[in-house]
Design brief:
With about 160 residues, the chain is mainly α. The protein has helices spanning about 5-10, 10-30, 35-65, 70-105, 110-140, 140-145, 155-164.
Length: about 160
C-alpha cells in the first residue's frame, strides 16, 4: 500500500462521517435523549481525527500523482482540504465540549449552546468537506470533471488518432 492508496482510503471517512454526525445530531434534536446527543458528538470527534489523518497523507499522495496531474488541480484540492480540516477540527472540538457538557453537572447550562454550535459547525464542515472531496475526485475521475485536473486524457488522445 502506498501513500496515495492510504489517502484514498482515509478521505472517505470524513465525507461519510460528517454527514452521519449531522444526521445524528438532527435526530438528537427530535429525540432529545442524552445518548443520541452523545453519539452525534462522538462521531464529530471521530470525523476530526480521520480528517487529520487524511490531510496528513495528502502530501505523500501528491508526490505520487504530481507528474500525471496539473499542479493547479492539486493546489485547489489542497486549499479546500485545509479549510475542510479546520472546520472538521472545530466541529470535533465542539463535539468534545458538547460531550462534556452532557456528563459534567457543572456544565449543564452550556449544553444547549454547545449543541447549537456543533450543529452550525457540522453544517459548515459538511459543505467544506464536500467541496474538498469534489476537487480531489476531479483530479483523477474524468467522469466528474471531464479532463479537468488531468494534463491529457490518454483515452481521448487514442480515439482522436483513430479518427484521423
Amino acid at each position: 500500500m502506498n501513500q496515495a492508496h492510504l489517502h484514498l482510503i482515509l478521505v472517505h471517512f470524513p465525507v461519510v462521517g460528517s454527514l452521519a454526525a449531522l444526521a445524528l445530531l438532527l435526530r438528537a434534536y427530535f429525540l432529545r435523549t442524552k445518548e443520541s446527543r452523545s453519539l452525534a458528538a462522538f462521531v464529530a470527534i471521530l470525523v476530526a481525527g480521520t480528517a487529520g489523518a487524511a490531510y496528513l497523507t495528502g502530501e505523500g499522495a501528491e508526490h505520487q500523482v504530481e507528474k500525471l496531474v496539473l499542479e493547479s488541480a492539486i493546489e485547489s484540492h489542497e486549499s479546500a482540504a485545509l479549510a475542510a480540516l479546520v472546520s472538521a477540527m472545530i466541529a470535533g472540538g465542539l463535539g468534545l465540549v458538547a460531550l462534556l457538557t452532557l456528563y459534567v453537572r457543572r456544565m449543564e447550562g452550556v449544553t444547549g449552546l454547545a449543541q447549537h454550535g456543533l450543529l452550525l459547525a457540522l453544517i459548515v464542515s459538511v459543505v467544506l468537506i464536500g467541496i474538498a472531496s469534489q476537487r480531489g475526485g476531479s483530479i483523477r475521475h474524468t467522469e466528474i470533471a471531464g479532463t479537468n485536473g488531468n494534463q491529457e486524457n490518454p483515452e481521448t488522445r487514442l480515439r482522436e488518432k483513430d479518427d484521423d
